[in-house]
Structure formats: structure tokens, C-alpha cells
Design brief:
This protein is mainly α and 165 residues long. It contains 8 helices and no strands. Helix 2 (38-51) crosses helix 3 (61-76), helix 3 (61-76) crosses helix 5 (96-112) and helix 5 (96-112) crosses helix 6 (120-136).
Length: 165
């Protein structure tokens, strides 16, 4: 019995240790050019990672706050430019959750691939690939619309770049 309690306790501790903790977004000011520093960038990456690793849930306040921070960061960062291309976002029409994930995916890609950040085609392609991987994972509860199914099919055939152009 002691062993069972110990194993249960150990499992609980390990799951808590790996739980994602988000930064205090309210404490990070994004008002001047100088505010967009490594702390702000790291918070944006953490927010993007959180959004791309947690299931879609309408009532999840952490998801909402993460997306709000990403939108504010994307709107003001002097280091990166983002284009919401109609072709790349057509799978997100009438689905704000997917559009938010696309913004998170672009953020993640540029922050992890700074050398490619100015290449909008690479950003678009790799952001959509992140969305496709997210959507394919059933635990994320993504409802596949016709356009998202087309994007997944194009990616499976190695023709996602053509689909996006």
C-alpha cells in the first residue's frame, strides 16, 4: 500500500513539474520600441507554445490571455513583420480559433528561425505546417473544415507550398 501511495504521489509531482506556466503578461509592458526585448519575445514564444500544445477550449482563460498577448506583441514588434495572407488563412474563415493558432504559429516560427523571419513565404508555409500538425492531433479537438482538409491533403502529398500560392 505504501508503494502504491508513493508511486501515485510521484506521478502527481512529475505531472506538476511539467505543467506549463505562463508569464505574467500584465507585467510585460509593450508600449515603446525598447519594451520589445528578449523578455517580451520569450513571453510571446511561451504563449505560442502554450496555444500550440493545448486543446481548443472556449472557456480556457489562459488560451485567451496568451492569444491577446501574441496579438499585441505582433502588432508592435519592430523586429518582425507579419502578413495575414488570404491564401494561408482561408482554412480559418469563420473560425477565430484557427486564425489565432495561425498567429501563434507565425510567432513561434519567426522566434525560433530568426534567419528566415523576413521570408514571408517560409513563415507562411511553416506556420501552416504547425497548424496542420496541431489539427491532426485528435486531443486538440479541431473541427476540420473543407479548406483545412485540403491543406492537410496537400501537405500529405508534399504540395503544401503550391496549395498556399
Amino acid at each position: 500500500m505504501k508503494r502504491l501511495i508513493f508511486i501515485t504521489w510521484l506521478g502527481l509531482l512529475s505531472s506538476l513539474a511539467f505543467a506549463q506556466t505562463l508569464p505574467d503578461f500584465d507585467a510585460i509592458k509593450l508600449e515603446t520600441k525598447e519594451d520589445y526585448n528578449s523578455i517580451a519575445d520569450n513571453a510571446a514564444l511561451q504563449a505560442a507554445d502554450f496555444l500550440l500544445t493545448t486543446p481548443l477550449e472556449k472557456d480556457n482563460i489562459s488560451r485567451l490571455r496568451s492569444l491577446q498577448y501574441i496579438i499585441k506583441w505582433m502588432s508592435g514588434t519592430p523586429d518582425y513583420n507579419f502578413t495575414l495572407n488570404e491564401q494561408a488563412t482561408k482554412f480559418a474563415k469563420k473560425n477565430d480559433d484557427l486564425l489565432g493558432l495561425y498567429m501563434a504559429a507565425m510567432t513561434k516560427y519567426v522566434l525560433e528561425n530568426k534567419a528566415d523571419a523576413k521570408d514571408q513565404d517560409k513563415v507562411k508555409l511553416n506556420a501552416v505546417k504547425l497548424i496542420i500538425a496541431y489539427a491532426k492531433d485528435e486531443k486538440n479537438k479541431v473541427r476540420l473544415n473543407a479548406e483545412l482538409k485540403k491543406a492537410i491533403e496537400a501537405d500529405d502529398k508534399g504540395k503544401l507550398s503550391e496549395y498556399l500560392n
